[in-house]
Amino acid sequence: MGGLIMNEIPTQPRNKFPIGRVILNSIGWIILACIFGSIVGGMASAFLGVPSWVLTPLCMIAVIIFAFITNWAFFKAWGLTPYISVLFGLASLVMWVMPLIGFPISLIALIMSFISYNYKNNAWSIVGLICGLLGLIGTVVNSVLGVYAAMQ
């Protein structure tokens, strides 16, 4: 057919990489994550009695994860999955301090690096895997030490 149907992503990119689309899309999702995280995190903390500093980042991460899931075909078509696994891996190296956030990010980094390694075998997938594993180990150790300190 002559035209491109909505939500249809070509398996092979037609032109050069649409960096403008990626930047605008990323900025939009980050703004949405901040707004959604602030509103829903604040409302949920008022109803559940959980501090908002716990729920707000979790809501932000939920929106960002949703953004990556909905754009997965685009990332795969352009071969960006190894680089995204590295981004999540690096984020897990920072977020191991907060296990509620670090654990899901580490798991996403591991899953994405496995998928990208099977899809496109390159060094970036291995870097994402190593960063995700280190973040997961740090998260688990921090969780165990936190539970142990709370029991004392």
Describe this structure in words.
The structure is a single chain. By secondary structure, this protein is mainly α. The chain has two domains: 19-70, no CATH class; 72-152, no CATH class. It is 80% helix and 0% strand. It contains six helices and no strands. The protein has helices at residues 19-48, 52-70, 72-78, 81-95, 99-119, 123-151. The longest helix is centred in the N-terminal third of the chain and has 30 residues, at 19-48. The radius of gyration is 18 Å and the shape is flat. The chain starts with 18 loop residues before the first helix and ends with a helix.
Entry keywords:
152 residues, 80% helix
What's the quick description here?
This protein is mainly α. It has six helices and no strands.
How many distinct folded domains?
2
Strand content: under 5%
Task: Give the end-to-end Cα distance, rounded to a whole number of Å.
Answer: 68 Å
Question: What fraction, in percent, of the residue positions are helical?
Answer: over 70%
Mean pLDDT comes to: 77
Q: The biggest beta sheet, please?
A: none
What is the approximate shape? flat
